[in-house]
């Protein structure tokens, strides 16, 4: 009723067959649903948001990528303080990695905004299909065995301790292969900035399988890295590509959905949700690819 | 029997991590509050937005450079001069959230310096410089 009285809603102009406010409501509902499945599926919001909203909504991909970065940032910011306090995210580990991600994200965002939309759309489709393969095939290691830390990890003291509630014990951890991981994070930053995807889908396997960080610390530190790297978001803000009418309903919808998702995690099988998300991403990736090549 | 140990901050997180978490939490709360309040004002049309909501569908399908030209949307930090418009006011919350990690990193620098951890101090400082450069609009994509 309040909304109906506002000048914007009273105007009620429709472009095409769908009134503008209906797109907003639909965007909120879709993001709420994405937030619900993102948590149990173990992915951030951005990787689901960009291909789905970019493929099925009338907004230009520039604005969708800007909003995608804010969706990923918002979720990571909300989670990071608790993760840090519990030792499930590690600041010492995140600092050098996020420095590289933040730097390469700027380059990625600038390239992404300068390229023609069809090329970005096609590349996005290919990247999403690659993520589908990664999600389908990647193994996870709860507590990877790390023999000796590399000299860089020793120098930076990249190690820690956390309490694993499921095992009821404190777990000490350390990492290895730090130089290779640093190079990998440069590429992750480039892709994240270029496509507005967030980077949890790549951060977690790199931290867990390459560096040997325990899975829980990998997921928490991945979230912290996302929260520490808003550089691409700033590029989009400065270019005028952060449209509040898209950003705010998306961020709020995704965060409210994530609250339900956390509860859902206790009652449904995460693997079933993960299969659902892989199927949705497959459709969204194919849609982005087809849109990019003009089909 | 389940373990009675409840993970507490002082046990598993070093002091710099706790300070970072405290500052980040405060910035995030402020950012989200600003975002929700400013968006409510925007939806109610109070004060009037730079681009009326009902006209946005004519422009939101355009690439950002064409959108900026067609709607006279400010770029860089010029939006600060237009926050009397409810749509531009939303950028305050977005900027606070995007700047939260800058403030949090600033807060832990003295801890690294006091402990003589110069490598981590340098990394955190470089991180700050990268974020400030990205926020400053010195780098222009087009």
Q: Report the count of strand segments of chain B.
A: 0
Share in helix of chain B: 55-70%
β-strand percent of chain B reads under 5%
Shape descriptor of chain B: elongated
Main β sheet profile of chain B: none
CA gyration radius of chain B, whole angstroms: 20 Å
Give the largest interface. Answer: A-B, 81 and 79 residues
β-sheet strand percentage of chain A? 5-15%
What is the string of SSEs of chain B from the N terminus onward?
A: HHHHH
Q: Are there runs of chain A of 5+ residues with pLDDT below 50, and where?
A: 1-15
Distance between the termini of chain B: 62 Å
Unreliable spans of chain B: 1-7
Summed over residues and divided by their number, the pLDDT of chain A gives a mean of 85
Q: Would you report the number of β strands of chain A?
A: 4
Radius of gyration of CA atoms of chain A, rounded to a whole number: 19 Å
Major β-sheet annotation of chain A = 2 strands, antiparallel
Mean pLDDT across every amino acid position of chain B: 89
Describe this structure in words.
The complex is a heterodimer of chains A (295) and B (142). Chain A is mostly helical. Helix content of chain A is 74%, strand content 5%. Chain A has a two-stranded antiparallel sheet with strand order 1-2. A two-stranded antiparallel sheet of chain A has the order 3-4. In chain A, a hairpin with a 2-residue loop joins strand 1 and strand 2. The longest helix of chain A is centred in the first third of the chain and has 25 residues, at 61-85. The radius of gyration of chain A is 19 Å and the shape is globular. Residues 1-15 of chain A have low confidence and may be disordered. With 142 residues, chain B is an all-alpha fold. Chain B is 64% helix and 0% strand. Chain B has helices at residues 9-12, 15-44, 64-71, 86-115, 118-136. In chain B, helix 2 runs antiparallel to helix 4 and helix 4 (86-115) runs antiparallel to helix 5. Mean pLDDT of chain B is 89; it is low at 1-7. At the A-B interface, helix 2, helix 3, helix 5, helix 6 and strand 3 of A face helix 1, helix 2, helix 3, helix 4 and helix 5 of B.
């Amino acid at each position: 009723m309040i909304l109906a009285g506002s000048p914007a809603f009273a105007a009620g102009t429709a472009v095409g067959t769908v009134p503008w406010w209906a797109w907003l409501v639909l965007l909120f509902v879709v993001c709420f649903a994405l937030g619900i499945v993102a948590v149990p599926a173990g992915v951030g919001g951005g990787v689901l948001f960009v291909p789905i909203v970019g493929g099925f909504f009338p907004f230009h991909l520039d604005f969708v990528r800007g909003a995608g970065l804010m969706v990923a940032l918002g979720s990571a910011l909300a989670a990071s303080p608790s993760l840090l306090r519990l030792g499930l995210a590690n600041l010492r580990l995140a600092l050098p990695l996020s420095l590289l991600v933040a730097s390469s994200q700027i380059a990625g965002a600038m390239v992404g905004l300068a390229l023609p939309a069809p090329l970005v759309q096609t590349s996005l489709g290919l990247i999403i299909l690659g993520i589908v393969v990664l999600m389908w095939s990647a193994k996870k290691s709860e507590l990877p065995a790390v023999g000796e830390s590399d000299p860089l990890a020793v120098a930076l003291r990249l190690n820690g301790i956390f309490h694993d509630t499921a095992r009821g014990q404190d777990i000490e951890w350390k990492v290895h292969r730090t130089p290779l991981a640093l190079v990998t994070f440069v590429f992750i930053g480039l892709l994240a900035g270029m496509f507005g995807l967030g980077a949890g889908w790549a951060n977690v396997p790199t931290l867990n399988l390459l560096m040997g960080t325990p899975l829980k610390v990998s997921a928490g530190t991945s979230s912290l890295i996302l929260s520490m790297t808003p550089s691409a978001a700033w590029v989009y803000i400065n270019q005028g590509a952060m449209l509040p009418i898209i950003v705010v309903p998306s961020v709020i919808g995704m965060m409210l959905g994530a609250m339900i998702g956390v509860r859902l995690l206790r009652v449904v099988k995460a693997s079933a949700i993960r299969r659902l998300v892989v199927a949705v991403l497959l459709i969204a990736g194919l849609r982005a690819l087809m849109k990019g090549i003009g089909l | 029997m389940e373990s009675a140990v409840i993970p507490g901050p002082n046990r598993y997180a070093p002091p710099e991590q706790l300070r970072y978490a405290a500052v980040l939490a405060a910035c995030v709360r402020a950012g989200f509050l600003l975002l929700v309040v400013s968006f409510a004002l925007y939806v109610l049309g109070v004060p009037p937005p730079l681009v009326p909501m009902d006209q946005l569908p004519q422009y939101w399908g355009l690439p950002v450079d064409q959108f900026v030209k067609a709607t006279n949307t400010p770029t860089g930090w010029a939006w600060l001069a237009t926050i009397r418009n409810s749509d531009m006011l939303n950028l305050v919350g977005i900027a606070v959230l995007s700047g939260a990690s800058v403030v949090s990193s600033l807060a832990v620098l003295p801890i690294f310096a006091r402990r003589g951890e110069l490598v981590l101090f340098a990394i955190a400082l470089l991180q700050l410089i990268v974020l400030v450069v990205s926020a400053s609009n010195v780098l222009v994509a087009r």
